[in-house]
Amino acid sequence: MNYDPMVPIWLQVVNRIKESIVTGRLLPGAKLPGGRDLAVQFEINPNTAARVYQELEREGLCETRRGLGTFITPEQSRIDALRERMALDALNRFLSSLKALGMTREDAAAMLNMKEE
Amino acid sequence: MLESKNLTRKFGSKTAVDGVTLSLKPGHIYAMLGPNGSGKTTWMKMAAGLMKPTSGEVTFQGEPVGIASREQVAYMSTEPYFYAWMSIRDAGKYYEDFFADFSMSRFKDLLTRMDLEEDLKIRTLSSGMVAKMKIALTLSRDAKVYMLDEPFNGIDLLARDEIRTTILEAAREDKLLLLSSHLVEEMEAIADQAVFIRNGKLIEVRDLEELRETDGVSMADRYRMIFGHGEVN
């Protein structure tokens, strides 16, 4: 498992799980591994794994049911909202990269339209 | 759980461990870091109850370490401590006789995962195979503390993944793991605390996620800041 050692590991794992949620690799309502299993699966410290679930819960993407485990939210609307937030983040990164090269939004839009699939 | 107070060990005129006060708690994986000769091994040996301090003390759950604590502290030394005539199976039996908490089924399971045949004689093993066998032996104990001195040394890249997984499987909320290694990168994601030691003195103990979040640096970066550029390998 490759991580950027300068960025909090919990954040990197949260982002990987979010990607799995929006792409449907993890389905709404699906059960997630227990904290210790998550740690082994992602090769991370168990305390980091606990932090991953705390954060996903805080964002309303997971819920822990006592005695049963942690589950992806069954609410599709939350997953759709997550996809929109992630798409917006990607768009902002794209725009700021182009801005750093001295290009305007219009230039960016023109390039995007010209770019072949 | 495992504490040292003003712990000092001298070898003649050389002070290997110099007044180290350190408190290690269960539920954490500590990476103990420092250049060669910084005192990591000497600290571990005293914490394992295998070497007497010159002054100061080490306690395990409030009691001085000794024969009783050795039953709950699993220590893997860097030195060879097996007879060359032994097979891997013999080494397992030796551990089973010595430690009440040793699980033979866990040992066999780890050997399989690490691609080690029980019938092999220890004298025929490569250094990497010996290293894997030692880890399998140590982590087959159901101890409260695991201290592994250089668990990644001599182990190839692929087997290191297996070692990391095995270490993570041994971690529990009521257990304490302490790893020393020169291969700092191997421990970035599995450790949550780093203990930096230089010239026998404790420099600092840092929470790694906090280090990344507040300082934006990795454990390896912090190592370079503390020890300078020449000593990282």
Name its key features:
heterodimer; A: 117 residues; mainly alpha; Arc Repressor Mutant, subunit A; 2 domains; three-stranded antiparallel beta sheet; B: 233 residues; alpha/beta; Rossmann fold; six-stranded mixed beta sheet; four-stranded antiparallel beta sheet; globular
Question: How would you sum up this structure, described in words?
Answer:
The complex is a heterodimer of chains A (117) and B (233). Chain A is mainly alpha-helical. Chain A has 2 domains: 9-74, Arc Repressor Mutant, subunit A (Orthogonal Bundle), CATH 1.10.10; 77-114. Helix content of chain A is 60%, strand content 9%. Chain A contains 5 helices and 3 strands. Chain A has helices at 9-22, 35-42, 46-58, 76-100, 105-114, and strands at residues 31-32, 62-65, 69-72. Chain A has a 3-stranded antiparallel β-sheet. In chain A, helix 1 (9-22) packs across helix 3 and helix 2 (35-42) packs across helix 3 (46-58). Chain A starts with 8 loop residues before the first helix and ends with a helix. By secondary structure, chain B is an alpha/beta fold. Chain B has one domain: P-loop containing nucleotide triphosphate hydrolases (Rossmann fold), CATH 3.40.50.300. Chain B contains 9 helices and 10 strands. Chain B has helices at residues 40-47, 67-70, 88-98, 104-113, 127-139, 157-170, 184-187, 208-215, 219-227, and strands at 2-11, 14-24, 28-33, 55-60, 63-64, 73-76, 145-149, 176-180, 193-198, 201-207. Chain B has a 6-stranded mixed β-sheet with strand order 6-7-8-3-9-10, with helices on both faces. Chain B has a 4-stranded antiparallel β-sheet with strand order 2-1-4-5, covered by helices on one side. In chain B, helix 4 runs antiparallel to helix 5 (127-139) and helix 5 (127-139) runs parallel beside helix 6 (157-170). Chain B is globular, with a radius of gyration of 17 Å. The mean pLDDT of chain B is 92. Chain A binds chain B through residues 1, 3, 5-10, 36, 39-40, 42-48, 51, and chain B through 27-29, 161, 164-165, 168-169, 171-173, 185, 188-192, 208-209, 212-213, 216-221.
